[in-house]
Each structure stands twice: as structure tokens, then as C-alpha cells.
Specification:
The protein is α+β, with helices and mostly antiparallel strands. About 20% of the residues lie in helices and about 20% in strands. It contains 1 helix and 4 strands, in the order E-E-H-E-E. The chain has one helix at about 35-50, and strands at about 5-10, 15-20, 70-75, 80-85. The protein has a 4-stranded antiparallel beta sheet, with no helix packed on it. The radius of gyration is 15 Å and the shape is globular. It starts with 5 loop residues before the first strand and ends in a 7-residue tail after the last strand.
């Protein structure tokens, strides 16, 4: 996603963009990052691995399955920073 995007799922497979947008085709790599952002992330991850050997990174399995009403917030690099689950009783 583009930086600072917020989406809300309307079903298990469809979502509405509340803020921001989809990444521009061709501008981002398979991770959704520009070349500069990927280089910065790789460098950061390398430093973290040096400081904390064996530290596991988040994977898609770390995140809950989408449900209607779930909101996903993306950071300035387009990575997920917060997931809000719907309150009990919300549609």
C-alpha cells in the first residue's frame, strides 16, 4: 500500500480504502517498496539481526485473517503498523 494508507475490510476478501491508496504499478517491488525504501529496510534488518541474532521477523502468518470491519493501518514505508479488529456487535 501507499504510505499512511488505512483500509477497512467489508468482507474476508474485499476492502475499502479509507485513506491513501494502492501502490503505483512499476514503482514498487514485490514487497511494496521503492528501491530506496527496500535498501533502507534491508540495512535496518541487517542491524537488527546483528544486535539480536536469530530474532524472527513478522510473517503473514502473524496477522489475523481479514474479517468485515477490520481496519489495517500502514506506515510511511507501506508496512502494516496497526490492525484494529471490529468491536463485538459491529457489522
Amino acid at each position: 500500500m501507499q504510505p499512511l494508507t488505512i483500509i477497512e475490510y467489508v468482507s474476508e476478501t474485499e476492502y475499502t480504502i479509507l485513506q491513501g491508496g494502492e501502490p503505483e504499478p512499476g514503482l514498487y517491488n514485490e514487497n511494496g517498496l521503492t528501491d530506496e525504501e527496500q535498501a533502507a529496510l534491508d540495512e535496518r534488518n541487517k542491524k537488527i539481526e546483528e544486535m539480536y541474532p536469530g530474532l524472527s521477523h513478522f510473517s503473514d502468518d502473524s496477522f489475523p485473517s481479514p474479517v468485515p470491519g477490520m481496519k489495517v493501518h500502514y506506515d510511511q514505508l507501506g508496512g502494516i503498523i496497526r490492525i484494529e479488529m471490529p468491536e463485538e456487535g459491529e457489522p
